[in-house]
Amino acid sequence: MKTIETTLPWSSTRVAVRDDVRENWAARLGANARFLPRRIRLFADLPIRPSSLDDFLSRASAFLVKEMTVRSARVYRMSRTTGLAASELEEFLTAQRHGQGWAIYYTQEGGLPLPEVVSASEGGVIPCSSMQNHGVGWRRAADSIETWLVTARKHGSDWDLDSDVGHESAHAAFAPVPLFISPGVMENVPLSLADVDTIGDLEPEHIIRLLYFYSEIVVVAVRGEARRTSTRLPIADPEELYRLVAISEELFPGFGFEKAKVACARTRAYLDPKESDAIFDLATPIMRLLPLLGVFVNALAPPTLETLADAVKSRLLKA
């Protein structure tokens, strides 16, 4: 693969880039290449040797062969369990309706450095609250904003293929991370959906939290990725999980959250994605909903309650 010199899309930092990553990986994956994100670019700090890039890409493609085999099997399992048509699942996992590309960034020391030159009003990187080497890069372009899911390895560490390639490839393919999700909101322990009695009580920070959990829940459901929490999900508090489902049912009637509520009650909010099919009852309505929320992926601020409802209604009318 050919490496050329360029700048990062979200800053003026000079880096090397390889643009034929998807083509290279697809050659090894065969039919399962349909699960790959549509746009993948590998950036690297200039001191990184080409041989190191070759090694990473080879190891990542070998991992993805196994990853996509599991993903394909779980499509069948989810369809059999929920009654959701396999064709509908395939469309969700492969249609890639959003415009968020995947930028893998091989930094010299690991970690995700902040931009050096670009103005804070023109672009930057928002790191994940729990995984500082993952984030969303963005840049203003004329009257619009472009975003990228940005993935680096942890500072001073080797690549974690399960997290940096498996988990992130799922986000980039079908569960984009909105730009407005800020680390401070997710780390603010007193803030919780469990404290929301009615949807009228939803603050912008609650909406951020709700949409963030949607993205994470779908990824772990499709991958069979269990977390070390009391729910086995990225949303650790069972009470907050119950409220997420109740709020979602009220906000988006008819999507299937009533079945998710039954599943949460039956399992006492223990929905292990690896061991239990109950996770699919929670993931299915979110999978129906996420494509309708793609309009907010590149937004700097979260949608209001009214904007959120209107976007879903208008997209449904056009479908």
Describe the structure using short key phrases.
about 325 residues, alpha/beta, 2 domains, seven-stranded mixed β-sheet, globular
Task: Explain this structure.
Helix content is 45%, strand content 13%. The protein is α/β, with parallel strands linked by helices and 319 residues long. A seven-stranded mixed beta sheet has the order 1-2-3-4-7-6-5, with helices on one face. Helix 8 packs antiparallel against helix 9. The radius of gyration is 19 Å and the shape is globular. The protein starts with a strand and ends with a helix.
Task: Give the SSE map.
Layout: E1 4-7, E2 14-18, H1 21-29, E3 40-45, H2 50-82, H3 86-95, E4 101-106, E5 123-127, E6 134-141, E7 144-151, H4 161-174, H5 183-187, H6 204-223, H7 238-251, H8 257-267, H9 278-289, H10 305-318
Parallel strand pairs: 3-4, 4-7
Antiparallel strand pairs: 1-2, 2-3, 5-6, 6-7
How would you summarize this macromolecular structure in one to three sentences?
It is globular, with a radius of gyration of 19 Å. With 319 residues, it is an alpha/beta fold.
Strand pairing plus helix content: what structural class? alpha/beta
Poorly predicted parts:
none
Largest sheet: number of strands, sense, barrel closure? 7 strands, mixed
Q: What is the total domain count? A: 2
The termini sit apart by: 40 Å
Number of helices: 10
Q: Over the alpha carbons, how many angstroms does the gyration radius reach? A: 19 Å
Order of helices and strands: EEHEHHEEEEHHHHHHH
